[in-house]
Specification:
By secondary structure, the chain is α+β, with helices and mostly antiparallel strands. The chain is built from 21 helices and 21 strands. The strands form five sheets. It has a seven-stranded antiparallel β-sheet with strand order 1-20-19-15-14-9-8. Strands 7-4-3-11-10-2-21 form a seven-stranded antiparallel β-sheet. It has a three-stranded mixed β-sheet with strand order 16-17-18. Strand 16 and strand 17 form a beta hairpin. Helix 6 packs antiparallel against helix 10. The longest helix has 21 residues. The chain is globular, with a radius of gyration of 22 Å. It starts with a helix and ends with a strand. The structure holds 6-diazenyl-5-OXO-L-norleucine. The site of 6-diazenyl-5-OXO-L-norleucine has 15 residues, from loops.
């Protein structure tokens, strides 16, 4: 293991230094990813305290689900920009026992009073303030239901919920010193926080600036809310005083949520999506996330090509696969409880073959030629993903979010719970872009109790029925292409996981008709893509893919350095 680790590290260092020096590559904006090796268990998360808490659960005999639950509650305290109990997400689990794959959907729902016109102004146009900034934006949170469901059904039974929440409670009650990560994201969210006195008093100084790095952040209300959950389970969140305070705060902020909406919220298990890629089995999240469908559609298209790392012809094909798959996403996908999407067709190898036949191998096909919609702008980086593997052969990929950084910015008074603005993921009006520039149509229109379409892509790749790669990412629309590229880097390009995670990524989502590339993609490649008709734009690193690879010799974790404070912990 030790030798392997050094080699992987050397490889990671090499791609960091060599191309930049030798080929005039643009400087990457983040340091190399350091692989961490371990024999028994591994947690890779975007925040170090939470990763250490999860690894401790594994060491004490917990399984991957126990650890994932502890990490999920901890990050609600230590990573307020995205870790949450006021949002929602998706968990994909592989259980060694019985060789089972499970998908838990704990996506937020729209309150029962939501209609398809909820996010429109008086002129009938989409109003981004309604879907992003006001109480109307807030979906009924799913995280507490999701994490407790996961533990009840798939935990090892060695840990009670209260034991797994205890570290989160201690961090909230006693406080912790905020670090780089809080400064990195907090500064750009000051305006969003300042609008809500309940949030400002926690995260901002009296002069309106952000609390400084090193400040002890004590979250007493959040500690009390977590204590209630530890004692009485999810009921303490969805019924009684906490639920009443949340719904009152949302309504005071102009929203529609009632105590009844919280009481009837349910996390649900859905059949996982399964596909194959070059002989490996891919297990990912079904709708209401588009992640699994779009990932598998792209992989199916690309399986018919021989791809070479960094080769312009290969990269061109990858971009075109993205363009076609995202066009399908926009037109066809939504909450499966409300719309019937042709999922099996979209994921079939035959459909992929028809796309390959249509795909121009030399030139970018303008997105207009595929289907019509409107162009768009983009928002920041705020979901969070973590990957866990235990010594029993179980794995968890979990991605959860409150949507934009610090969600809607509002802490529901008296609860400590920072609320999401997830309902911006609906198509507020047909063809009008959301904060990530994604467009959608009827399949994703707002409606009562509906779950907005997501891009979160927690994914487990199996080899011979056992976990091989566990990955996922934040990044809104870019999540699915980030996961795609981590998989292509490992499977097609044979990169060690640290290198696969570190390598600069690119993204196309059909609309707007742009290929976004991270700084670090070589100038030659950019020119070669432009020569093929791609409209290339350089963008800051928005995704971050904490990943684990399982080798015959042990586990290798890679914490993505695109997020400061990310950590891989193994034992
Ligand atoms: O569910 C989704 O696809 C989005 N709400 C995720 C938001 C996100 O990743 C923000 N981080 N960049």
């Amino acid at each position: 293991m030790r030798r392997m680790s050094r080699r992987a590290l050397a490889a990671a260092l090499l791609i960091w230094i060599a191309p930049a020096a030798a080929h005039g590559q643009r400087a990457m904006q983040f340091p190399p990813v350091q692989p961490v090796t371990a024999r028994n268990g591994m947690v890779v998360a975007q925040e170090s305290r939470a990763a250490l808490i999860g690894a401790e659960v594994l060491k004490r005999g917990g399984n991957a689900v126990d650890a994932a639950v502890a990490v999920g509650f901890a990050m609600a305290v230590t990573y307020p920009r995205a870790g949450n109990i006021g949002g929602g997400g998706f968990m994909v689990i592989h259980l060694a026992k019985g060789n089972r794959d499970i998908a838990i959907d704990y996506r937020e729902t729209a309150p029962a009073a939501t209609t398809k016109d909820t996010f429109l102004n008086a002129q009938g146009e989409a109003d981004p303030a309604k879907s992003r900034e006001l109480g109307l934006a807030i979906g009924v949170p799913g995280t507490v239901a999701g994490l407790t469901l996961a533990l009840e059904k798939y935990g090892s039974g060695r840990f009670k919920l209260a034991q797994l929440i205890a570290p989160a409670i201690a961090l909230a009650r006693n406080g912790y010193k905020v670090g780089d990560e809080f400064e990195d994201t907090g500064r750009s969210s000051i305006a969003r926080m300042a609008r809500w006195p309940s949030t400002a008093k926690l995260f901002l100084k009296p002069d309106g600036s952000l609390i400084a790095r090193g400040t002890l952040l004590v979250q007493s209300d959040l500690a009390s809310t977590l204590e209630g959950i530890a004692k009485h389970g999810a009921r303490a969140f969805y019924e009684g005083p906490v639920a009443d305070k949340i719904s009152a705060a949302v309504r005071e902020a102009g929203g529609l949520m009632t105590s009844g909406d919280l009481k009837t919220y349910k996390a649900v298990e859905r059949p996982v999506l399964r596909g194959s890629y070059r002989g490996l089995r891919i297990v990912s999240m079904p709708p209401p996330s588009s992640g699994g469908v779009v990932l598998l559609e792209m992989l199916n298209v690309l399986e018919g090509f021989r791809l070479k790392a960094g080769d312009p012809d290969s990269v061109h094909l990858v971009i075109e696969a993205m363009r076609y798959a995202y066009a399908d996403r926009a037109h066809l996908l939504g909450d499966p409880d409300f719309v019937k999407a042709p999922i099996a067709g979209l994921m079939s190898k035959r459909y992929a073959a028809t796309l390959r036949a249509r795909l121009d191998r030399q030139r970018a096909t303008p997105s207009d030629k595929i289907k019509t919609a409107n162009p768009a702008g983009f928002e920041g980086n705020n979901t969070t993903h973590y990957s866990v593997v235990d010594r029993f052969g179980n794995a968890v990929a979990n991605t959860y979010t409150i949507n934009l950084s610090y969600g809607v910015g509002m802490i529901a008074e008296g609860t400590g719970v920072l609320m999401n603005n997830e309902l911006d993921d609906f198509a507020a009006a047909p063809g009008v872009p959301n904060a990530f520039g994604l467009v959608g149509f009827e399949a994703n229109e707002p409606g009562p109790n509906k779950r907005p379409l997501s891009s979160m892509t927690p994914t487990i790749v199996l080899r011979d029925g056992k976990p091989f790669i566990v990955t996922g990412s934040p990044g809104g629309s870019r999540i699915i292409t980030a996961v795609l590229q981590v998989l292509l880097n490992v499977i097609d390009h044979r990169m060690p996981i640290a290198e696969a995670v570190h390598a600069p990524r690119l993204h196309h989502q059909w609309r707007p008709d742009e290929t976004m590339v991270e700084a670090g993609v070589s100038a030659e490649l950019v020119r070669a893509l432009q020569a093929r008709g791609h409209n290339v734009k350089v963008w800051p690193p928005f995704t971050s893919a904490p990943s684990i690879v399982v080798t015959p010799h042990g586990l290798i974790g890679a914490a993505d350095t695109r997020t400061r404070g990310a950590l891989a912990v193994g034992y």
